[in-house]
Automatic annotation (TrEMBL):
<dbReference type="InterPro" id="IPR058792">
    <property type="entry name" value="Beta-barrel_RND_2"/>
</dbReference>
<dbReference type="InterPro" id="IPR006143">
    <property type="entry name" value="RND_pump_MFP"/>
</dbReference>
<keyword id="KW-0732">Signal</keyword>
<feature type="domain" description="CusB-like beta-barrel">
    <location>
        <begin position="229"/>
        <end position="301"/>
    </location>
</feature>
<comment type="similarity">
    <text>Belongs to the membrane fusion protein (MFP) (TC 8.A.1) family.</text>
</comment>
<dbReference type="InterPro" id="IPR051909">
    <property type="entry name" value="MFP_Cation_Efflux"/>
</dbReference>
<keyword id="KW-0813">Transport</keyword>
<dbReference type="Pfam" id="PF25954">
    <property type="entry name" value="Beta-barrel_RND_2"/>
</dbReference>
<protein>
    <submittedName>
        <fullName>Efflux RND transporter periplasmic adaptor subunit</fullName>
    </submittedName>
</protein>
<feature type="signal peptide">
    <location>
        <begin position="1"/>
        <end position="16"/>
    </location>
</feature>
């Protein structure tokens, strides 16, 4: 603020003047009379730390505009559900909780778990007998002591029990119940559900005491270590895209900063409704920690570079719906004669703004490139019309 105030005080448009007296007042009066000329003394130019520059050819990026969101790869997002229904006995985690792979998430209780384990114990117990009978009938059939029918019955009973045992064992494993412990006589009414990935809890769909079926979601976990951009590109722009092209993007709802990334994968199909295709972009490593999945982004993909005549962006002053440059019409030992010139501007890139209206200008034209805003605003505020 002190810097702005000093510029305001040092500008010649303060009617009371600053460091000079009647001479500067008459200069100001002269500028009022000439209507579109501003007189600026060399002393004021120096004291206000202003700068002069000329039109310079600068590289400007040609870009494709798009929008999309921050997302994570499929393997970094897990929706957790139960393999069997039950009542939530314990759900200690909240949205935002960090979890490790294999960490217990919730506990589910269901009397059917007891029945399933009982059936497994009985099947395992029968399996030992049926296996012995099957082996005995096989030997007796070889010695022609028993009939083929008796052997086939023993074989069928054994293999049916074996299949049932294997099926129940797999079911118990999916419920995170140890089949070996059940076979040894340990039966439980509860089972735990564990996290399949490392990450953070982003949604919890259950409460303690609620009933969940196998189709119900219990919670969602996302790992943001490998977040990326998913951008929608219109069909007409697809042919301009290549892998490794630079992406410049913003998160309008969260920050005014511009972040960077690169094109990694380009979609090979087009949505028939929106006529767009998806482009997958990698975010610069130093920026990855700034985001979370689901954020909306505005993006520009850099497809090339073109040379344009430009001035530093501070040389352009927006006023009354127009853009102005402060063109130095004449320079004497004591002062500058400055003409505010309305121009049409192009994009701003790397601190420079492209100037479209250059027919009235030439390579030798000089402009105020630092302090232009304060000069023109103060002159406008003093009632002078450009």
């Amino acid at each position: 603020m002190n810097y702005i105030k000093s510029l305001l005080l040092l500008s010649i448009f303060v009617l009371a003047g600053c460091n000079n007296s009647e001479t500067e007042s008459s200069s100001l009066a002269a500028s009022e009379e000439k209507d579109d000329l501003i007189h600026l003394s060399k002393a004021q130019f120096k004291n206000a730390n202003m700068e002069i520059g000329q039109l310079t050819e600068k590289p400007f990026a040609t870009t494709i505009q798009s929008s999309g969101m921050i997302d994570v790869p499929p393997q970094s997002r897990a929706v957790v559900s139960a393999f069997a229904g039950g009542y939530i006995k314990n759900a200690p985690l909240l949205v935002g909780s960090k979890v490790a792979k294999g960490q217990r998430l919730v506990t589910i209780e269901n009397p059917e778990f007891i029945t399933m384990q009982q059936n497994y114990m009985e099947t395992v117990a029968q399996l030992s007998y049926l296996n012995s009978e099957y082996e005995r009938q096989k030997i007796m059939l070889a010695e022609k002591i028993t009939s083929q029918k008796s052997f086939l019955r023993a074989e069928s009973d054994y293999k049916t029990a074996l299949a049932r045992s294997n099926s129940l064992e797999k079911n118990l494993q999916m419920l995170n119940i140890n089949p070996a412990a059940v076979a040894a006589g340990t039966i439980v009414s509860q089972t735990h559900i564990y996290s399949p990935i490392e990450g953070s809890v982003t949604q919890v769909f259950v409460n303690t005491g609620s009933y969940v079926s196998p189709a119900d979601k219990i919670m969602e976990i996302i790992n943001t270590d490998h977040i990326h951009l998913e951008l929608k590109i219109f069909e007409k722009d697809l042919l301009q895209l290549k892998e490794e092209q630079e992406i410049q993007f913003t998160v309008p709802e969260a920050s005014d900063d511009t972040f960077s990334g690169v094109v990694h994968l380009i979609g090979t199909s087009i949505d028939p409704n929106s006529r767009t295709s998806l482009v997958h972009g990698h975010i610069a490593e130093e920026d990855e920690s700034n985001f979370t999945a689901g954020m909306f982004v505005d993006a520009h993909i850099v497809t090339g570079v073109e040379k344009r005549m430009a001035l530093p962006e501070n040389a352009v002053v927006a006023m009354d719906g127009k853009n102005y440059l402060l063109l130095i019409e004449n320079e004497t030992e004591a002062e500058f004669e400055i003409h505010p010139l309305a121009v049409k501007t192009g994009p701003t890139y790397n601190g420079f703004t492209a100037i479209e209206t250059i027919d009235k200008l030439n390579a030798n034209s000089k402009f105020i490139t630092k302090g232009a805003f304060v000069l023109l605003q103060e002159e406008g505020g003093g009632g002078h019309s450009h």
